[in-house]
Each structure stands twice: as structure tokens, then as C-alpha cells.
Amino acid sequence: MQNVxxxxxxxxxxxILFAKLGQFLRLPSVTGYIIAGVLLGPSCLGFVSYExxxxxxxxxxxxxxxxxxxxxxxxxxxxxxxxxxxKIFIIGLGETIGAxxxxxxxxLLVSLYVGACVGGWAFKEIVVxxxxxxxxxxxxxxxxxxxxxxxxxxxxxxxxxxxxxxxIDNGLAIMIFGVAxxxxxxxxxxxxxxxxxxxxxxxxxxxxxxxGVLTGMLIDFFGQKLKNKNELLTAGLALLLLCGExxxxxxxxxxxxxxxxxxxxxxxxxxxxxxxxxxxxFEAPIYVLFFSLAGAHLHFSSVMIVGWLALxxxxxxxxxxxxxxxxxxxxxLAPPTVQRYLGLALxxxxxxxxxxxxxxxxxxxxxxxxxxxxxxVLAGVFLSELTGPVCARLAFDKSGESxxxxxxxxxxxxxxxxxxxxxxxxxxxxxxxxxxxxxxxKLIPPRRLEGCVVFGLSLPTTAAGLxxxxxxxxxxxxxxxxxxxxxxxxxxxxxxxEETDSAPQLFKLASQEVxxxxxxxxxxxxxxxxxxSALLSVTDNPGTRAIIIGxxxxxxxQEFQGVIESVAKxxxxxxxxxxxxxxxxxxxxxxxxxxxxxxxTLGDPVSSLCxxxxxxxxxxxxxxxxAVKEHIENxxxxxxxxxxxxxxxRFVRIKVEATETRLQAIVQxxxxxxxxxxxxxxxxxxxxxxxxxxxxxxxQNINKSMLIVHSSKQSN
Length: 716
Hints:
By secondary structure, this protein is an alpha/beta fold. Helix content is 61%, strand content 9%. Strands 4-3-2-5-6-12-11-8-9-10 form a ten-stranded mixed beta sheet, with helices on both faces.
């Protein structure tokens, strides 16, 4: 069949037919797709020719591999992996060594004693063959595993560990393959030093990772600009394909680049996963074609020639994967389900392995080995892709993780993602801000005040607002509000802390506001050439409870961010940045929370505002979109206990959202609130560049006053 369109139609039709038949027999859909490809391919009925498989439909394989790689990256969330990263490395090393060792030794023995298709070869040539097959055996096919996982709706420790191991596995495969090729070239006399080729492989991996990070950051950037799902799909797919083709043009790994792009997107602080969802709706026919074409690639005539080698490769690779993974998991003290069943889920092998045998074909001096390696690996790929999905499904079923997401709350998953747009805030100036009158009466200070809450004064416009926030915190901490004015005689026109004689005016404005709340203001002038040193000097007093600093209300104040990061890194108390917007109200407060660490950081600030009047506080807990009902209920219980511990349960309304985009969820909820309180992690500039800051993103997209809280170094 030469008609490409008709070939597509036949592959899709027969593929889905056999997938449904497989489901009826309780087999994964992937198995049905592969069988359909085998039947339609040149080795059987011949409806799909070699030309169509190898040239005209090859771009569908490339698209599918990028979608698969990007999807794997979604499962590499640092918050989940941080606690198991050491275990994952040990497991990955175990299953890699297991597969390589058994395939290498098995190929060597079969070739020497059975003489399968290598008659007349010298011993060193058999060693090279064994070495190359051992290197190729390390690779694992993420496509089938990911497809089965989604079909089974698996969730749990095994699933999380599996995705991370697969990602590490293919990185190791590329590196081991580079080393093996270097050794093989030297053995057969083709030349080439081992060390440069090893470093070349490392450079390939690092460059692939850098390309993936760049792609992920571009996807995240444009994702915030495009709210229509169709536009998001178009832009995201374009960037992914550009990443894949760019990797191929530079002789890099498209799989590693794609996985890194997904990893980058999922670990940005705003965690916008809408692209993952729209791609999942798009990828179904691509996957049918990908797996069907994988089956059609099998050449039975070639397999018959290398029968013994192919069988030994398949079985020894499987034993090595299962045994190595089990041993690694046991050494890493992984959960019992991971120890027992992880190896089963690592059986599939396809895209990466096929790519490696093509590299062997193109390697001068090693082309003679490709005539044996190609049919051996393709036969192993066929068998592993035929049985691998069944083994993976068995692993998920036996571990109890299948259908873990069957009770997802669809309304939680789609509610906020369905919003087509939201209005970002416009640049505002300090002149736009004004105070609302305090109507709750004067606070009653305790008889004895201990310590202080420090706030910096630099501009008359925000002096009263900062004084009010500081006084509310002082009331909670039973301390005194302390206004600090920094005079910098050697710095002119400073936007952050003015070098003027305005201190009396500033102190007067702040004192009036503090007095209206029932407290007395303490003041201090600090002469310093360095803002950070001046602010930190007030924390030398162990009684300092918090430092409050006003945001300059500029979207690109790098100097201010540098000051805040330095102060927060070294301060021994809470550092709170107040960003004023229009009118300061504190009646309705929104507290977005993304982690347990946020709950620890925001406890005192929330309690400070609640103890000074009856404020209405909404605690918005944001969960991943695949959060199940049990996770939502557990989050609600944790928040309720937290509110009780903080003594604010009667003021707090708890709301848990499973959302695809944190930023949109917060912005939408903020519309009905006056003030937001958010935590900002103490991250270095390089970390902030890669992972972003959800609090800063929110600040740029709403016209609401905000308290951005940095925890003290003592609490970290």
C-alpha cells in the first residue's frame, strides 16, 4: 500500500479494533496496537510497506516520542522526589547493572558455545558484540509504561518511583552506550580515545538538559500569556517539536530534552499543568500510530537468523531488570511494593533502544555488528513491547495502585482551568495607594511589652499602612512597634530608602496611626551605606519578632529583590514584605497554601491579624490536579488541625482545590478578598530564575494588598 492517507486510516482503524479486543481480554491497549502493526506490516499481510514505515510516517514516531518524554517530566516533581532521590539512584543503578551484566555475559556465552550467526568471528569481535548489546539493553521504553499507567489510572509509591527510575534509566543508557562505543572502537582498531568519547557523552547529556530547561521555561512563559486552550496547545506543541528537532540537528537526545522540559514546567512555583492536560487529549491517535508502527517494524526473516541471541537477549534483559531493581530497592529500603513489582514495570523497550541501534549503524568501524544487533534488538523490542505492557499492568494491579485516581473530583480538576482569561494588574504607583479608616476601636496592649516588631520607613505614602500592619503584629507578639529610618549619606536617588531629612515627618505619620490603634511608637534612625546591614542590625536584639518592609510597587525592582533575599537569608526573625495596592483593608483575608512548609511559615502572620478583630480568613490549599478524594479530605483535616493549633479556627474557612494552574486559582479567589498572605521560599537567585516565585507572580496579576512572608533562618 503506497497511499499514505489510506495507510494512516488502516493503522488507526485496526489499531483501535485490536486495542478494544485486548481490553476485552484484560490486556493493555498497547499490546493490541503492536499486534495490529505486526499483522499489517511487511512481515505478515503487507498492507503497510517498508517505505511508508521508514520514511513517510516516521515523523509521527518523532512527535510521539516528544509527547512521551514531556509526559514523563510531569511525574518528576521535586517535592515528591526529594525524599526518595537517594533510593531512586540506588534502584536505577541496580537495574542498569543487572541488565547490562546479564546480557553481556549471556551474549558472550551463546555466541561462543552455540555459535549463533557469528561463525568465524574472533573472540574480540564477540566481546564487542556482547558489549554493545549489553549497552543497548539498559534502555527502557517510557511510552508503553506511561500509557499503561494512565490507562490503569495508577497512583502511589510504585508509580512515582517508576517514572523517576525511567527518567534516570535513559540518561544512564545514553552515557553507558557512549562508553561502550568508545571501548568497542578501540577493541576493533577503529581508533578514538576512550576518555574524549566519555566526556563527549557527558556533554551530550548536559546540553540536552540545558535545551530542555530552556524549552520548559519558554512553555511556562507563554502559558501565562495564552489562556485559550487551543492557543496553548498550538504554542506548546510547536515549542516541543522545535525542541525535538533542535536536539536531533545538534546530535543530542530528544528524549532527555523533552523530559527536562516537562520537569521544568512542573517544578515552576506557579505549577501550571494545563499543557499536560491538553496534550493528553491530543495524543491518543499519535500513540495508536506510534505503537502500531513499532509492531510493523518487526522483520520475521531477520529474527529467524538470530533466534538464540534474540531469545537470550530478551530473557536475560528481563531477569536483569527485575533482579537488579529488586536488589536496588531492597538496599535502598524502598517500600515492599516497590521491591516486589518495580522490575515488572521496567520490561518494555522501544524508542531509545531503536535509536541506539541506528547510531551503531552510522558508526564507522562498527557497521558489521549492526547486521546482528539490529534484528536481535528489534526482536527483543517486539517481545518486550508485547509482554511488557502486560507485566506493567500486572505490577500496578498487584501493588494495589491501579484505579488509584478513579474517584477524582472532576469539578476540582476542571473548575478553574475552564476559565479562559483573567485580568492582570496594571503598573501602579505609590500615589494610587490610600488607607481605609480603622473602625474596630483601639487595641488593649498588655501591661508588659517584650521585644519589638520593626518596620522600615522611607515614603510618606506608605508610612501609615506599614505602621498599621506592624502594630497588629506587635499586638499578637505582645511587643512594641519600632519604626526604623535608614539614612544613606553616600547614595543619592535611592528608590528603596531615601537619604533625606524626612524622618520627623515619617515618624509623625506612623506615630499617629499607631496611636489610633492604642499603642505607642518607638523610633530609630540608622546611618549606614548598606541597606541590608542596617536592617539586620536591628535583629541583633533577640526580642525582635519580625521585620516589615514595604514593596516599591515596581514590577522589575531587581535591587529590591536582592535586598529582600539577603535580609531573609540572614535574619533571625520573620521578614514580611508588604505590597500595597489601592486601598488597604484587612477584613477579608486569603491565605493560599501549597505545602506543609507554607503552613509553618504563615501561622504567626495569620494569627496576628485574627487576634486584632474578627477577620474573615479563607485558607486555600492548592493540590495537584490528579489529587484523589482521600488526598483532599486529608488536606482539609490537616488545615483544620493547623487552624486549631494557631487558635484561629473560628475565623477560618478552609477550601481545598485540585487545580491545573495555581496562579489562576489564586487570582480568581482573590477577587472576593481584601488582603492576601503568602509564603515565599528563601531561594537563591539562580533557583528563583529556574523555579520562579508564585507569590511574585500573584503580586503582578492582582490589585490587592499582599503580605509576602519569608521564614527566618532558624525555622528552616
